[in-house]
């Protein structure tokens, strides 16, 4: 038996009323068992004397996990040290007000469950590079048939031409994963969903993030008011910075994604510069915050696996960690966006495990992009040295070498973790 009525797709400022499905989840004691085993391994490996505290502390914070249905691809993956091989992990940010108090509106009136943030992190097989791809919330996608979270054993029909941020309410986190898998052509065995307060908690566990603001940010909707300069944000201040769209760029969700990339690139720099990946205490704190604040797939409920994925980026060159905005164009009435032809270039880079190189003009030409660091020294011009042309000779026919890097088209915006870019603030007068 299947259900085929699609979710209402409309502006994200007026989200549809969504059905609250019951996610298929494992029992709490199954999750606790994994956590106990993982915590013991963590504390013995780090040589600390807080084993008992760590075990019970992590177990007490655990939430029931969610089965994605593709976990078999993880057979044999080790749980100690940096994870071997590549990683595809989907992070879903839910705008659900349930369990969030009244700080974000009345949960009884604002009952939507939209995935307003959908990000895919890909770590290369050899850990030499990584890509974090953000999918705009109003992007139109096709949705494959998914298990119905409200009726175990039954399926939801395929959907065509709906906004991606409606998929969480339609089929839960596993359906969001299947949709992004279908879109990109890669398998995603890891996933997690986080709500507002969870983002605040995770940012506190990290110890705050320094962000650069080029022009003042003024946003009455999220209560975000930041002067130009550098700010260290954690907790609610970090959450509101990540939520603001009226106060940055062109006021659109595309501008908000660019703003989030400013935060995430700074976070990546901090994690490496402060030795977080080699500090078991810091990694333990982050794992604890993730377990307490996120609903994770079964594949992530072991703290050792969380730590091993984090360690995969320990030695990755910051210039090889790319934050990419999935390329889209507005529909005629500006109510939604659709992927451009350049999206297939992103898909192929993910499928072929290639690092990417941004077009230098991409951010300059986009109204929603973040700003360059005003304190950075201008690049020195490179003088070309003339070379003598060698006489032409007929070379033997050979196979073209396999590509080692994917050059991105000029409509693909983003930045690397090595770049310090700044939020392009927007005043109330421009809104």
Automatic annotation (TrEMBL):
Residues 1-24, 367-431 are annotated as: Disordered. The keyword Transmembrane helix applies. It comes from the Bacteria. Keywords: Membrane, Transmembrane, Transmembrane helix. The chain crosses the membrane at residues 35-56. Residues 115-272 form the Cell envelope-related transcriptional attenuator domain. Residues 1-14 have a biased composition (Polar residues). Pfam families: LytR_cpsA_psr. Residues 367-380, 388-405 have a biased composition (Low complexity). Belongs to the LytR/CpsA/Psr (LCP) family. PANTHER family: POLYISOPRENYL-TEICHOIC ACID--PEPTIDOGLYCAN TEICHOIC ACID TRANSFERASE TAGU. This is LCP family protein.
